Please model this.
Amino acid sequence: MNAPPAAEMRNINKSFGGVHALRDVSFDLRAGEVHALVGENGAGKSTLMRILAGACQKDAGVIRIQGRPVEIRHPSVARKLGIGIINQEFALAPDLSVAENIFLGDLSDGKGWISRQRLCRKAEALIRSVGFDIDPRLQVRDLSVAHQQVVEICKALSENLSVLILDEPTAVLSSRDVESLFETLAVLKQKGVAICYISHRLEEVFRIADRITVAKDGRIVGSVSPRETTPDAVISLMIGRSLTSMYPVRDYSGGPEVLRVQGLTCAGKVRNASFRVRSGEVLGIAGLVGSGRTELVRAIFGADPKDSGEIFLQGRPVRMRCPRDAIRHGLGLLPEDRKEHGVLLGLSVRQNLTLSNLKSVANRIGFLEVRKEKRIAGNLIGRLGIKVGSPEQAVSELSGGNQQKVALARWFHADCRAVILDEPTRGVDVGARMEIYRLIDELARKGLALIVISSDLLEIIGMCDRVMVMSQGRVAGFLEKSELSEENIMRLAMAGASRLTN
Amino acid sequence: MGNSVQEPEDQKVVQQGAPDVFPNGGLTARVWKFLVKYNTVVIFLVMFLIAGWASDAFFTEKNVFNLLRQVAGLGIISMGMLLVILTGGIDLAVGSNVAVGSVLSAYLLGYMPLPAALVVAVLVCVLLGAASGYLVAGRNMAPFVATLALMTIARGLAFIISKGSPIISTSQDLNDFGSAYWLNIPLPVFLMLVVSALVFITLHYTVFGRLVIAIGSNEAAVRLAGIRTAYYKFAVYCIAGGLAAVAGIVSTSRTGVGSPIVGMGFELDAIAAVVIGGGSLSGGRGTALNTLLGVFILGMIGNIMNLMNVASYPQQIIKGLIIIAAVLLQEEMRKRK
Model:
């Protein structure tokens, strides 16, 4: 084995703004192996592979393909070098045929015409070569998710494919489809393709990987062989930071139940979730991205439809078919995506602050009492420590942390009994983070029931009185304050539905 | 991650958050910024000066009132269009609704007293608007498609009611309204100003107006704030329909006939007025005052050219160029911000 690796990355550095996403990362892929790359959300796995695929540019470092140094300035360069990538989100044109999708980058027959027959013949051969039988004339829209993924793989297969990167390929697949994916990978492996497999699912990783490399906070912290280690050992490599004093001291000692959810199910997203939150309690919801956390709370809030399940507020069953119902019942939601769902970027801070409770600043016939609105806005800005030049400033001009505080302030203004916060500190700098933690604590002390969803385990451990861990749409288990540790959370989060007895 | 580290980061946020009024400071920069910010006013004034320079007849009282009277109908429907566009929608049916309002008001005079005829005409157009509103807000149809359908339906309706030819208005009161004055202002112009003022007040001082703008700015967020967005989206199409009927009635009163071909292409002029006035077709941005200026600008183009004896075809080209210029200026404004 003296041949150079199929792909080799040495001392790669990459920053986004002030955030160091990758620090001196070195990583290699050998021909005919499956090399798994694992780590927590935000560890830098995807960034590293996007650099290799030309989707973003490294700040420093060297990339060698078959021993030859290269600069991959664009995805097309990566393609010429034989590097293919399949992202978690498919990049398919649903209205085009399978064949047209596979050859989207190279449709022409050389003279500017498309020969459907020729494309279909080529596509059919390619699909056969990975062990499937899909009619290349079908529209991609009509394919199952698994077959769509086969199309993605075929797209990545060029004649000289030497490196294939799969980013969370099984996140959208059912277990049967996962099997056919693995068969495909086995075929490619035999052909000598180097495969990089990014996944959160350790069972899968241990099944198919020849090597496992663990990333954490933008560094590589270890590389192990699955035969010589255990999933638990890999998990402890993935985590293991110390808590800091960022978090307020919580002294929750139990209160009356505020919100209870029973058997909530949304087809394909959430299965039979039940939990309760008490007055003054901060309940954390942990789990990997795609484990159904956001879908669960959106369904509770009435933002998305639910298939079954009951919701009780202070012991009484309530129906919440739209966010308006939820808010009338005293429920608030700080959505995951601040810019898409949280704030109105074009409107002023004042207008944003009063949006959920315009009634309180209007007279009976619907005229706004602007003076009153200004007073309330001023109060909220002071109370939450929102840093603005003036309440009339557009929200788009604020920093991420202050935008988040504006979104949060809405629920201080509206009368709420329970507030759900979905990733409250994503994209928020450290100073504003601490203030948001303080505000969460303040709401809880007022007797509200709080639910905090977060991918940041330290935040979950630091802020929450109790944690519910979700895995693949199910509640994998609960952890009391005394049991909270990154290991315990990750073990539940990584556990498939089969291992939820804990 | 101790306290000492966070302090400077906080300070930075303060500086970023504070409004930087004149980043470049220089006089030219300030003047340019002013021009860009009030581009609608600037275009309006430039047109105004060109008009005065090009023709002595422009600034005569007769011509100015004539111009205002000509744009009164467009002004009224543009206000409805503004509300629809603010929510992120579009209403292509307003032109046809003008015809329905015009024909119906004249037709109904044969069957009922004037006030009743006018109320029924407006109500019918409100219903036509409600049909658009239902399709858009209730059935999630694309506003362009829904109102395109209503546009042909309403036009067909106008032809059926009138059997294809103009109906002569039999009400002297109605005919007088079109040419009457109050405080030296022609009544239709007065009506346009009242409608504009109402829309201005609605947008600035009412919950309804605030939510119309908010929905266009970010509908998903407004829904998550617990607001029934469909209700407001439905309402703006009803209002646009009703205002179109009012414009149709004004047309009948001015010409003395209810015509099924009146208002063709008005929807596009109304959209142009909103856009020239800085409105964004994706919603959330636009004001009543600027839309009114947009209406005047469109009116002046035609008026000046007529005074200068320019044929009507070049007018169309210049109208198009002015729309492009206005939108490019607004783009510049956003970039500088």
In short: The CA atoms of residues 112 and 262 of chain A lie 59 Å apart. The longest strand of chain A covers residues 19-29.
